[in-house]
Amino acid sequence: MKQLDFWFDPVSPFAHLAFKRLPEVLVGISYTIAYRPIVFGVLLKHWGHKGPAEIEPKRAWTFRHVHWLAHREGVPLATPERHPFNSLALSRLAWACAPEGQTPGRCVCEAVLRHAWQGDGADAEDEARYLALRDRLQPRRDSRGAEAKQALRAATDDALARGVFGVPTIGVDDKLFWGFDGLTMAAAYLRGEAWFDAEHWQREGAPRAGVTRT
Fold first, then answer.
1. Contact 85/125 with Cβ under 8 angstroms?
2. What's this model's pTM, rounded to 2 decimal places?
């Protein structure tokens, strides 16, 4: 049985799509999975790049593309009233629901992602909606307290240490599979496709000379 990590931030519509499709893509594979909410903005700062919503033409394409993917995959999706939104409260809530020493369960993560991406376009930061979600989830500890904040911070730091640069990312063994498109690649690896044992995996991931932008 393989152990998988699924790093995500509720701010990402691709995380929502990947989360929804993950069980179907992994049918027939024996695995356990740890869902790990992290802070996408910290990844962006660490690696020195902008999020897709921070570049206007890219933002427009991103939402057209993600809605096309949702349509194709049959996944409900409604862009929230404001985006990007501050997802810290939602991620901390997920960690506040986790059993001691464990990661948040799938049902909790699904509720958090549904709050953001299946809310009929409502504001994901709306206080009344947040409190209603918190009351439904009944967290084990204060969702706005130090423990929840530290759990989210630690998960983000761990993701950075593992080389995670975007969300969603699936970790299996020493390999990382980024993005919604990475789901089928991760599944192929888990099914033991020989492609991953060939030299091109290491060769194509190795640094090489190139033009440096200044």
1. yes
2. 0.96
DSSP states of 180-203 as a string?
TTHHHHHHHHHTT-GGGGSTHHHH
Tokens 């869902």 -> residue: 35
Query: Residue for token digits 């599944």?
Result: 187
Query: Which pLDDT value is given to residue 178?
Result: 98
Residues of the chain short of pLDDT 50, as ranges, are none
Pairing outcome for strands 2-8 and 169-172: antiparallel
Please state, in angstroms and rounded to a whole number, the distance separating the CA atoms of residues 209 and 204.
Answer: 13
- The type of residue at 38 is I
Cα 51 from Cα 82, distance rounded (Å): 15
Query: Of 63, 58, 45, 25, which is closest to residue 166 (Cα–Cα)?
Result: 45
Q: How far is CA 53 from the centre of its chain?
A: 16
